[in-house]
Inverse folding.
């Protein structure tokens, strides 16, 4: 998979991709991540990328020219399965959506900023708009990082134990059951006996019961989607 991220602040993002699973995915050649500074595509002498909105509203808006220039340059080099914009009013990021995007070969993500981007970018270039929650961030860089992490970890080969990813919360519409590891007893706190029994059928039954109970308690709206 190739991921191109368009941003006003590439330095905010590079560190996130230089650690843990995302770093290993790139080192093993499973994922390519490229950052593009939109200031470099400005038509002005000082690299301006924003301006006041027409109509007199408060705040600033990302200009159409630098974004269009960057997108078109990249499109001339390759075809993209999706061009994603991190927008508060986009579709909510979910596990099924992350699963879907993980099957793509080439993605572009535009990080929003200020009051957003000139609407003409959304009308003529963007194929998918994604939100990570009903709140507003200072910029789309954090949202882009969240989307990238959720998607890249699902790319085949990125996680050594692929069954682990399949057992994550929300893969089956439920939150994950409780997990335990060694030691079996700590401060008189015990691991449930069933997990130590070696009876895999009973363990799976226990995990499902716990997942349903925890979902009912903490995220009951998920059960309504079943």
């Amino acid at each position: 998979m190739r991921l191109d991220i368009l941003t006003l602040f590439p330095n905010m993002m590079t560190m996130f991709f230089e650690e843990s699973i995302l770093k290993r995915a790139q080192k093993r050649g499973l994922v390519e991540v490229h950052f593009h500074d939109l200031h470099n595509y400005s038509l002005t002498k000082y690299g301006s990328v924003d301006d006041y909105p027409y109509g007199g509203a408060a705040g600033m808006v990302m200009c159409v020219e630098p974004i269009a220039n960057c997108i078109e340059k990249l499109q001339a080099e390759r075809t993209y399965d999706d061009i994603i914009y991190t927008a508060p009013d986009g579709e909510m990021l979910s596990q099924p959506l992350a699963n879907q995007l993980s099957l793509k070969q080439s993605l572009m993500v535009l990080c929003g900023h200020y009051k957003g981007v000139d609407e003409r970018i959304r009308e003529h270039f963007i194929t998918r708009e994604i939100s990570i929650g009903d709140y507003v961030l200072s910029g789309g860089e954090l949202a882009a990082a969240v989307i990238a992490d959720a998607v890249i970890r699902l790319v085949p080969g990125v996680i050594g134990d692929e069954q682990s990813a399949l057992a994550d919360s929300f893969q089956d519409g439920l939150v994950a059951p409780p997990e335990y590891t060694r030691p079996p007893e700590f401060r008189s706190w015990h691991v449930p006996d069933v997990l130590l029994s070696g009876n895999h059928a009973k363990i799976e039954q226990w995990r499902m019961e716990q997942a349903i109970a925890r979902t009912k308690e903490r995220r009951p709206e998920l059960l309504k989607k079943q």
